[in-house]
């Protein structure tokens, strides 16, 4: 049941310290900087030349997150919408690893892409929450995120577990390829081990409810981020539109000036996510919106220059740039939740949506 919570969504948001701890349990060894993905023998990914992620919706945002961490680790990779894969997949061969990211393991679009990749001779892997799901049965390998059942239609805890597992997996692929781990693996793993606590801190002391109240009745809600902040901006907007039914859009920070700025008014709050990746540029982009009257809500650490410049602030711990976006995402999940609650929306079962989408 929902226990002390009004909605499963809020319960599942609050479960993230636990679900993340479960995801990484036994899979990292911060003491000696090793990624003990016991699911895979060392060297499993030695022969992989490039990686394609296929996924839909929130899982696509996690896939994009994973793909960007892989690119940053020097491995060729791309994130593709599974529903577009049949018409526009890049070529694959037996050195291509196709990773289907799907919480349920039953999404028709994602299964179709996985089947196509299998038929074309790629190596395949699924990152899923459901043991025994179709994706787990049909992919060559499976990596389980161990998030526990997710009842709310809007995916929350599964997103953070997917993103973390993809970050870990990416480090393994990169180190298998190179024959040695990235120089800063040890510090990344130490930060990762502290993520459950950092998420608990966000949950204990978030101003998200006040921010949701302050900006209720806005015309539209924009989310911007750069690097790993970009998939988080997309996810922040998807969550917001799904459960509030308000207009929300996520943009790469630098894209704002290439068109979307025309939409910006004093009635369009802009949530700006700072991950430590060229933050000064993101701050400039946010200030361009502010100049047009839009309130800016900075999602960043307390001592960040954006705090001073912005109208409001949602705090996250100062962490590795591979992980900062995940803390920001928890703040944005809470903003969406409280905004939807103020509007009295049926949060766990938004109109027109289903938890598992088994049609094309
Ligand atoms: C959004 C949401 C959907 C799913 C998408 C893929 O909150 O839940 O966008 O992420 O339908 O579902 P899975 O991960 O089961 O393949």
From TrEMBL:
It catalyses: D-fructose 6-phosphate + L-glutamine = D-glucosamine 6-phosphate + L-glutamate. This is Glutamine--fructose-6-phosphate aminotransferase [isomerizing]. The keyword Oxidoreductase does not apply. Keywords: Aminotransferase, Cytoplasm, Glutamine amidotransferase, Repeat, Transferase. GO terms for biological process: carbohydrate metabolic process; fructose 6-phosphate metabolic process; protein N-linked glycosylation; UDP-N-acetylglucosamine metabolic process. It is found in: Cytoplasm. GO terms for molecular function: carbohydrate derivative binding; glutamine-fructose-6-phosphate transaminase (isomerizing) activity. It comes from the Archaea. The gene is glmS. The active site is at residue 355. One of its GO terms (cellular component) is cytoplasm. Catalyzes the first step in hexosamine metabolism, converting fructose-6P into glucosamine-6P using glutamine as a nitrogen source. Its EC number is 2.6.1.16. Homodimer. It comes from Natrinema halophilum. Residues 36-180, 211-350 form the SIS domain. It is an enzyme of class 2 (transferase).
């Amino acid at each position: 049941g929902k226990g002390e919570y009004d909605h499963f969504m809020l319960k599942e948001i609050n479960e993230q310290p636990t679900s993340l701890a479960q995801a990484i349990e036994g899979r990292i060894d911060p003491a000696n900087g090793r990624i003990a993905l016991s699911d895979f023998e060392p060297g499993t990914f030695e022969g992989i030349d490039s990686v394609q992620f296929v996924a839909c919706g929130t899982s696509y945002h996690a896939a994009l997150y994973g793909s960007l961490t892989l690119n940053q680790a020097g491995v060729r990779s791309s994130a593709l919408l599974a529903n577009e894969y049949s018409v526009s997949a890049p070529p694959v061969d037996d050195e291509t690893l196709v990773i289907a990211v799907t919480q349920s393991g039953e999404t028709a679009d994602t299964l179709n892409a996985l089947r196509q990749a299998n038929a074309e001779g790629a190596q395949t892997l699924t990152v899923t929450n459901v043991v025994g799901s179709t994706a787990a049965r049909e992919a060559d390998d499976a990596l389980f995120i161990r998030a526990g059942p997710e009842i709310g239609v809007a995916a929350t805890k599964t997103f953070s577990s997917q993103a973390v597992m993809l970050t870990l997996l990416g480090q393994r692929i990169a180190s298998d390829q190179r024959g040695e781990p990235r120089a800063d693996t040890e510090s990344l793993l130490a930060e990762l081990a502290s993520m459950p606590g950092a998420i608990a801190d966000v949950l204990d002391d978030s101003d998200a409810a006040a921010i949701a109240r302050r900006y209720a009745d806005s015309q539209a809600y924009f989310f911007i981020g750069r690097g790993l902040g970009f998939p988080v901006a997309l996810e922040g907007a998807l969550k917001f539109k799904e459960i509030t039914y308000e207009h929300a859009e996520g943009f790469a920070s630098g894209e704002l000036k290439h068109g979307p700025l025309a939409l910006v008014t004093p009635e369009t709050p802009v949530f700006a996510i700072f991950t430590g990746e060229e933050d000064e540029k993101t701050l400039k982009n946010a200030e361009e919106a502010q100049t047009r009257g839009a309130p800016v809500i900075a999602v960043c650490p307390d001592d960040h220059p954006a705090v001073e410049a912005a109208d409001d602030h949602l705090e996250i711990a100062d962490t590795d740039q591979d992980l900062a976006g995940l803390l920001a995402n928890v703040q944005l999940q809470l903003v969406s939740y409280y905004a939807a609650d103020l509007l009295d929306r049926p949060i766990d079962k938004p109109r027109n949506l289903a938890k598992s989408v088994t049609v094309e």
